[in-house]
Design a protein that fits this description.
Blueprint lengths: L4 H13 L1 E4 L5 H7 L1 E7 L14 H12 L11 H15 L5 E12 L3 E15 L2 E11 L9 H20 L4 E9 L2 E10 L7 E11 H25 L4
Helix pairs in contact: 3-4, 3-6, 4-6
């Protein structure tokens, strides 16, 4: 019996290493099995301070056009694809600054020592090369409706983990700073995550979150947060560029 114990333990460890997590089905219990999550809650974080971010006249005009198409709509009665096209993706486009571009429906896949995680991200802001996503930086989850809908926050955590691992494989920097948000109708909630111990058996994810922002009245604040996140990434890219 004693001689069998190592074999049993080996097979158990091997089984754990093959665990597959999928964004659309992920739960808090799934995440806690493999990741240490430290939630810092809603606070007055520096990345939410957007008073010094200015919009160009063209950006202000486009923002007004987006809001004018939303103001008289009963957003909660629209289907998800319509809300995405009218409210969410247009703001992501306005936040673009080369080489960071807006993307929709991007497949993410990452391998951690004890689990694999994959699925489709509704949207993202990411660095790109030759038309391909290279390094995701902000991922977006559009909350689904109905009885089968999953908690968008845990789905977002999964996407942040996958993106962090993908980026870490390229630069080996730790912690990896990632941003994300989930949207419910035209309401945005942002998150900043630091993922560390990425190549260990139990990665650590420290998460900060924002208040909710409604696009009908706070579209300018939402866009400024997005632009601030993009500017933060560009500074990081420049600081780590080969000399």
């Amino acid at each position: 019996m004693t001689s069998d114990t190592p074999s049993i333990q080996f097979n158990y460890d091997k089984l754990l290493s093959m665990t597959q997590l999928t964004f659309g089905k992920i739960s808090l219990a799934d995440l806690k099995n493999f990741v240490t999550i430290q939630e810092l809650g809603v606070q007055d974080y520096d990345w939410l301070q957007v008073g010094e971010i200015e919009l160009t006249e063209a950006e202000q005009q486009q923002l007004q056009a987006i809001q004018s198409r939303l103001v008289n709509l009963k957003i909660h009665l629209l289907n998800e694809a319509t809300i995405w096209a009218r409210a969410i993706y247009p703001l992501l486009l306005l936040a673009e600054q080369y080489p960071i571009q807006a993307w929709a429906e991007v497949f993410l896949s990452a391998h951690y020592p004890r689990f694999d995680i994959e699925g489709l991200a509704d949207g993202m802001l990411a660095n790109s090369i030759a038309g391909y996503v290279e390094t995701p930086y902000l991922v977006v989850v559009e909350a689904k409706r109905g009885l089968e809908a999953q908690n968008p926050q845990f789905q977002l955590y999964g996407q942040l983990l996958a993106s962090a691992r993908m980026n870490w494989e390229g630069d080996r920097q730790t912690p990896q700073e990632m941003f994300g948000c989930y949207t419910i109708a035209d309401t945005w909630t942002f998150f900043r995550a630091e993922i560390s111990e990425i190549d260990s058996d139990r990665p650590v994810m420290k998460v900060e979150s924002s208040p909710e922002y409604g696009e009908k009245l706070e579209a300018e604040t939402i866009l400024k947060i997005l632009k601030g996140i993009v500017s933060r990434k560009l500074r990081s890219l420049q600081a780590n560029a080969p000399r």
